[in-house]
């Protein structure tokens, strides 16, 4: 019989050095996989320490990715326990509650388009 973990127990494992995740009611210790994840470590850390079934399914992971999970399996989640809201911390330790993004990803393409329009019509 596999070990049962409550949502609260899983929620305590939310750092890069100790990261757990729930997928399909199974608990995985993915700490050793953080550096290998093709989508980057940030995605795992953001979704870690909670039920990540939805995001895992949304990405459309391959059968190989599902097979890889077996290696990190540590037990089952106790469905009688109450889910815990986990707030991730970024590198500075601040909460991720506010939207993040670099405004340059909008400004630079806008400048390129404006430059093209200027070149096309005023040159």
TrEMBL record:
The lineage of its organism: Eukaryota, Fungi, Fungi incertae sedis, Mucoromycota, Mucoromycotina. One of its GO terms (molecular function) is metal ion binding. Keywords: Heme, Iron, Membrane, Metal-binding, Transmembrane, Transmembrane helix. SMART domains: Cyt-b5. Residues 2-78 form the Cytochrome b5 heme-binding domain. Belongs to the cytochrome b5 family. Pfam families: Cyt-b5. Its main location: membrane. It comes from Absidia repens. It comes from the Eukaryota. This is Cytochrome b5-like heme/steroid binding domain-containing protein. It is found in: Membrane. One of its GO terms (cellular component) is endoplasmic reticulum membrane.
